[in-house]
Each structure stands twice: as structure tokens, then as C-alpha cells.
Design brief:
The chain is of the alpha+beta class. The protein has a single domain, classed as HIT family, subunit A (2-Layer Sandwich). It has two helices and five strands. The chain binds adenosine monophosphate (AMP) and zinc ion (ZN).
Length: 115
């Protein structure tokens, strides 16, 4: 855990969020700044700086995260209509929290290309 990392503090339950899912490896919670009717963040409990810091040792974790995202899409009623999974990596992509997270966005038509 990184003391200064916002999402590590959410994992440690030091900051209140609206939880969508939790298990030994991951936590999911509503994004505080909802960009769509469904906007959930899925994060590993272990601090990983971002997608660019993933290694082969994380392959199972990433596969698990996608299973969780897909289950949340079903649970939140966007699996049939469509949804987007986004991870921003680095400054130019707009990553604002340096702890790996996947945005699950759905519930409206999502424009492409993204900004
Ligand atoms: P990104 O900009 O891709 O790094 O995504 C970080 C996301 O974290 C943004 O969408 C923020 O709205 C969200 N966020 C920041 N602080 C909180 C918080 N305390 N609870 C829930 N989501 C947060
Ligand atoms: Zn962290």
C-alpha cells in the first residue's frame, strides 16, 4: 500500500465510496464524477501504477478484472446494450490517479473517438 495513493486508501477503507463489488484481489466502486449513467471503477487491491506497469505475473489478475467488469455490466443492465472499458495510462491519456483502474461506462450512447 502506498500511503499517498488515493485508491490504496479506498482499498484500506479510509475513504468512503459506494462499493459495487469486492473480493480478495479487486474492489469496484462508483466513480465520484459520473460520466455516464453507469460509471464504475474496477481496481486491483495491490498497488500497480497503471496498465503500462503490468507484467506477465499480472496476467491472471487482469483476466480476473475483466471477468469482474463483465459481471458488473450484466448486473447493471448494460451488457446487452453495450459498454466501454477504459484505462488511461500516463499524462497524455489523462490518467489522474496512479493506481491501475478500469472504467466501466454504459447506459448511454458513447461517442467515438474519445476526447
Ligand atoms: P483517470 O482520470 O482515468 O485516472 O480516472 C480516475 C478517476 O477516479 C476519475 O474518473 C475520478 O472521477 C475518480 N475518482 C477520484 N477520486 C475519487 C473518489 N474519492 N471516489 C471515487 N472516484 C474517484
Ligand atoms: Zn495505490
Amino acid at each position: 500500500m502506498s500511503e499517498s495513493c488515493l485508491f490504496c486508501r479506498i482499498v484500506a477503507k479510509e475513504i468512503p465510496v459506494t462499493y459495487a463489488y469486492e473480493d480478495e484481489q479487486v474492489v469496484a466502486f462508483d466513480d465520484i464524477n459520473q460520466q455516464a449513467p453507469i460509471h464504475i471503477l474496477v481496481i486491483p487491491k495491490r498497488h500497480i501504477r497503471g496498465a503500462g506497469a503490468l507484467t506477465a505475473q499480472d496476467n491472471d489478475l487482469v483476466g480476473h478484472i475483466f471477468q469482474v467488469v463483465n459481471q458488473l455490466a450484466v448486473k447493471n443492465g448494460v451488457a446487452a446494450t453495450g459498454y466501454r472499458i477504459v484505462t488511461n495510462n500516463g499524462d497524455a491519456a489523462g490518467q489522474s490517479v496512479d493506481h491501475l483502474h478500469f472504467h466501466l461506462l454504459g447506459g448511454r450512447d458513447l461517442g467515438w473517438p474519445p476526447g
